[in-house]
Design a protein that fits this description.
alpha/beta, Undecaprenyl pyrophosphate synthetase, binds farnesyl diphosphate
Length: about 240
């Protein structure tokens, strides 16, 4: 394969539609969606990707029926507990980004435990966005910046500002994949995706598989990433 993205972020859409299409309750779509994450991580590692970030729950998702929110919170917690051993064995560093303080306490504790026990790994980085919204992230960053007496508005640079974002330790995503046909970012990593390549597929997340993932990576390899500059070659 030609050029491999270092950081791929996923907007895992379509669990509900997948379940509906199979005559199943929405919960089954989410459950199957969780198992896809594990498969995708294996493929990412195998192909030399170093960072994978998954949008699991947006700030707006709290507006869903209480039973679905509760089911998802339990699913996230179980996922973290069940996957802990594998992450440690495979030396995968775990992070969660978002407004974590609004999540159930038991989930917050599971996040903290896994974050701490994998903090020394650097081989592969798994990040889950939970109760994440890019606009809230910016507001929280601004609040913290304004609290910092040493911050100087005149000399503020992007490098200074990004230190206040949830993603301060992560490189920007090179490729963002969204499943299930919608072609928008839905308040996900809006600043970090400034130069990301976007890839959309109609496949629902529970059906997203190796073949689809490799197609996305291959497509990324054909994109010309100028990052605002002009092409190096003359007359291009
Ligand atoms: C979007 O599909 C998906 C979600 C809001 C939840 C994402 C969660 C998972 C993939 C489950 C597991 C995650 C972890 C981290 C264990 P949707 O429900 O909006 O689908 P629809 O648009 O078809 O209704």
């Amino acid at each position: 394969m030609s050029r491999i993205p270092a950081h791929v972020a996923f907007i895992m859409d379509g669990n509900g539609r997948w379940a509906q299409a199979h005559g199943l309750p929405r919960h089954d779509g989410h459950r199957r969606g969780a198992s896809v994450i594990k498969k995708i991580l294996r493929i990412a590692e195998k192909n030399g990707i170093k960072y994978a970030t998954f949008f699991a729950f947006s700030s707006e998702n709290f507006l869903r029926p209480e039973s679905e929110v509760k089911f998802l919170m339990d699913l996230f917690e179980k996922f973290l507990q069940k996957y802990r051993k594998t992450l440690c064995e495979k030396e995968i560093r775990f992070r969660a980004i978002g407004n974590l303080s609004q999540l159930p306490i038991s989930l917050q504790l599971a996040i903290e435990k896994l974050t701490q026990s994998t903090a020394h790994f650097d081989r592969f980085h798994l990040t889950i966005a939970l109760n994440y919204g890019a606009r809230s992230e910016v507001i929280e960053a601004m609040r913290n910046l304004l609290k910092n007496k040493d911050a100087n508005a005149e000399n503020l640079t992007w490098e200074d500002f990004e230190q206040y974002l949830y993603t301060k330790d992560l490189p920007d995503p090179d490729l963002i994949i969204r499943t299930s046909g919608e072609q928008r970012l839905s308040n996900f990593l809006l600043l970090q995706s400034a130069y990301a390549e976007l890839y959309f597929t109609k496949t629902h997340w529970p059906d997203f598989n190796e073949e689809e993932f490799l197609l996305a990576i291959e497509d990324y390899g054909t994109r010309e990433r100028r990052m605002g500059k002009i092409n190096d070659k003359p007359n291009d």
